[in-house]
Automatic annotation (TrEMBL):
Pathway: Amino-acid biosynthesis; L-serine biosynthesis; L-serine from 3-phospho-D-glycerate: step 2/3; Cofactor biosynthesis; pyridoxine 5'-phosphate biosynthesis; pyridoxine 5'-phosphate from D-erythrose 4-phosphate: step 3/5. It comes from Nitrosomonas supralitoralis. GO terms for biological process: L-serine biosynthetic process; pyridoxine biosynthetic process. Homodimer. Its cofactor is pyridoxal 5'-phosphate. Binds 1 pyridoxal phosphate per subunit. The keyword Cell cycle does not apply. L-glutamate binds at R42. This is Phosphoserine aminotransferase.
Length: 363
């Protein structure tokens, strides 16, 4: 069988070189006689893995000293509650921008802890666009402003960072689960960013948080210890056992990204990949992408076939051609091609060639 290209939305494709290195190091990491899975998280071997992962990440993004990088568990979903628990800091309101299913979930969870002002929403376009900032109705008493930079299900992505408060008094918080490290990132524009690892970073089980130090230390009364960012920050993410193997693989992904030329190079490749697929979608009426052109995701591209009766046939033939996990999210149907950093451009080119051929066959 030819190479298989995996378009899963997450857990998703990882760089082949990373998996090969993990395979080579599986039984004996650097002559230690142990697999990384078997190491104490407090031993010198794992400590060196964790330190390198953090320093490579800091270097890749360019993270200043006044930001903490936390390696947590619980998925991005746990951040839906950790964010209000830690960032309300005595206030009772928060602003949220609603651009789809993930923002909606974040809003539902945060509303258990505070009053939510949905400052802008794209429900009017059925979540196929991002509300432009002139339509946002922010609350000056909000403790923070939360948005989702890439809606993994809807395929809607912010290609700009909101300009909200140049003095940084109201922190901007972003769920970057599905587009983190797909392009350069100016962390100083944010109070906090978070991401589940299993899309663009590494395996499921690790949740990455980057938070400005001055926001720490004022959790809601009753916040569970493990939900307090400060506890994790003070203990270098080792208050309890962190997800060691997931951190190791993610560290290999950071090293891979550095080796590939970093985030500027990644962005160029991601733009080229996205252009290939959108180029086809816009030049046929056999396929359709519902998302507004300016707000289309480079990471997750949802599309439908004009004739949904062909969906099963499309998926079957794609799979026979080594193009897998293209089925759309169960809530929206159709197809979705997720093209994270680890998806090579050859995979997208092969998908586009297959889609052209399929359209010709069924015209
Ligand atoms: N936010 C976004 C944008 C996501 O794509 C996902 C997962 N698909 C989540 C949050 C939830 O992540 P987790 O399953 O890690 O809790």
């Amino acid at each position: 069988m030819d190479q298989i290209f995996n378009f899963s939305a997450g857990p998703a494709v990882l760089p082949k070189e990373v998996l090969q290195q993990a395979r080579d190091e599986m039984l004996d990491w650097h002559g230690s006689g142990m697999s990384v899975m078997e190491m104490s998280h407090r031993g010198k071997e794992f400590m060196s893995i964790a330190e390198k992962a953090e320093s490579d990440f800091r270097e890749l993004v360019g993270i200043p000293k006044n930001y903490k990088v936390l390696f947590l568990q619980g998925g991005a979903s746990s951040q839906f509650s950790m964010v209000p628990m830690n960032l309300l800091r005595g206030k009772t309101k928060a602003d949220y921008i609603n651009t789809g299913q993930w923002s909606t979930k974040a809003i539902e969870e945060a509303s258990r802890y505070c009053t939510i002002n949905v400052a802008a929403s794209s429900t009017n376009t059925n979540f196929t666009s991002v509300p432009t900032q002139d339509n946002w109705r922010l609350d000056s008493n909000a403790a923070y402003i939360h948005y989702t930079s890439n809606e993994t299900i809807g395929g809607v992505e912010f290609h700009w960072i909101p300009e909200i408060d140049l003095n940084n008094t109201i922190p901007l918080v972003v769920d970057m689960s599905s587009d983190i490290l797909s392009r350069p990132l100016d962390i100083t524009r944010f109070g906090l960013i978070y991401a589940g690892a299993q899309k663009n970073l590494g395996p499921a089980g690790l949740t990455l948080v980057v938070v400005r130090e001055d926001l720490l230390g004022k959790p809601l009364p009753g916040t569970p210890t493990l939900y307090d960012y400060q506890i994790h920050a003070q203990n270098d993410s080792m208050y309890n056992t962190p997800p060691t193997y997931a951190m190791y693989i993610t560290g290999l992904v950071f090293a891979w990204l550095k080796n590939k030329g970093g985030l500027v190079t990644m962005e160029k490749i991601n733009i080229a990949k996205a252009n290939l697929l959108y180029g086809l979608l816009d030049n046929t009426d056999f396929y359709h992408c519902p998302v507004a052109k300016a707000d289309r995701s480079r990471m997750n591209i949802p599309f439908t076939l004009r004739n949904p009766a062909l969906d099963e046939e499309f998926l079957m033939q794609a799979s026979n051609n080594g193009l897998i996990q293209l089925k759309g999210h169960r809530s929206v149907g159709g197809m979705r091609a997720s093209m994270y950093n680890a998806m090579p451009i050859e995979g997208v080119a092969k998908l586009v060639a297959f889609m052209k051929e399929f359209a010709c066959q069924h015209a």
